[in-house]
């Protein structure tokens, strides 16, 4: 079992930066591929970035070059550094954990709101 709690969301101006954190508990963090997803009102939830246990990363085309995903296994935490934020980045951001040895096992956090506005 994995419990995920996101934090770090808030209001930021276009062009600004924000760092999201996702703290995991209840299992061995290093066994999970971690990801960030986001969902704007009226839209489908979409992938933002993922990072595997081995540190391999993948990004949505819409955020590549602006966002960076990282993890600290000692702290059971995954981060999303968001730079050069745009209004279209406004969404609820969700943390996801997927068991590396069993893709059928996955967990979601409750989300944190990110609003980019002047």
Question: How is the topology of this model organized?
Answer:
Elements: E1 3-7, E2 10-12, E3 18-25, E4 32-39, E5 46-51, E6 57-59, E7 67-72, E8 77-82, E9 91-99, E10 106-108, E11 112-116
Parallel strand pairs: 2-11
Antiparallel strand pairs: 1-3, 3-8, 4-5, 4-9, 5-6, 7-8, 9-10, 9-11
Please describe the structure with a list of short key phrases separated by commas or semicolons.
mainly beta, 118 residues, globular, single chain
Structural class of the secondary structure composition? mainly beta
Number of DSSP-assigned strands: 11
What number is the mean pLDDT?
Answer: 95
The ordered string of helix (H) and strand (E) elements is EEEEEEEEEEE
Distance between the termini: 40 Å
In percent terms, what proportion of residues is strand?
A: over 45%
Q: Cα-atom Rg, whole angstroms?
A: 14 Å
Which shape, going by the Cα principal axes? globular
Q: Biggest sheet, in brief?
A: 7 strands, mixed
**Overall helicity:** under 10%
Low-confidence runs (pLDDT<50, min 5 residues)?
none
- Determine the number of helices (DSSP H or I, runs of at least 4 residues): 0
What would your notes on this structure say?
There is one protein chain. With 118 residues, the chain is mostly beta strands. The chain is 0% helix and 53% strand. It has no helices and 11 strands. The chain has strands at 3-7, 10-12, 18-25, 32-39, 46-51, 57-59, 67-72, 77-82, 91-99, 106-108, 112-116. The strands form 2 sheets. Strands 2, 4, 5, 6, 9, 10 and 11 form a 7-stranded mixed β-sheet that branches. The mean pLDDT is 95.
